[in-house]
């Protein structure tokens, strides 16, 4: 088991939760770097996140310089 799992450009948030959740220790963190649809994926993945006991701790939104593209960083803790 791991204390930290990260993902970027792998899959939608629900599938990532299904992959990361079982690999995390209790109190471990899962960090997902998502594109502009990240908030929509959060809503669509609520059941899977709950099933995997992943609670959203922090959500950061920012714009990438030079390309003016929106991104989100979602930080979950396994309880």
Give a structural overview:
The chain has 79 residues and is an alpha+beta fold. 27% of the residues lie in helices and 49% in strands. It contains three helices and four strands, in the order E-H-E-H-H-E-E. It has helices spanning 13-20, 38-44, 46-51; strands at residues 2-8, 24-34, 54-64, 69-78. A four-stranded mixed sheet has the order 1-2-4-3. Strand 3 (54-64) and strand 4 form a beta hairpin. The longest helix is centred in the first third of the chain and has 8 residues, at 13-20. The protein starts with a strand and ends with a strand. 20% of the residues are buried. The model has no long low-confidence stretch (mean pLDDT 94).
Number of helices: 3
- Total DSSP E strands: 4
Spatial ordering of strands, largest sheet: 1-2-4-3
Strand content: over 45%
Distance between the termini: 14 Å
Low-confidence stretches: none
Order of helices and strands: EHEHHEE
Described by strand count, sense and barrel closure, the largest sheet is: 4 strands, mixed
Mean pLDDT: 94
What is the molecular shape? globular
Q: Helical proportion?
A: 25-40%
Question: Which class best fits the helix and strand makeup?
Answer: alpha+beta
Radius of gyration: 12 Å
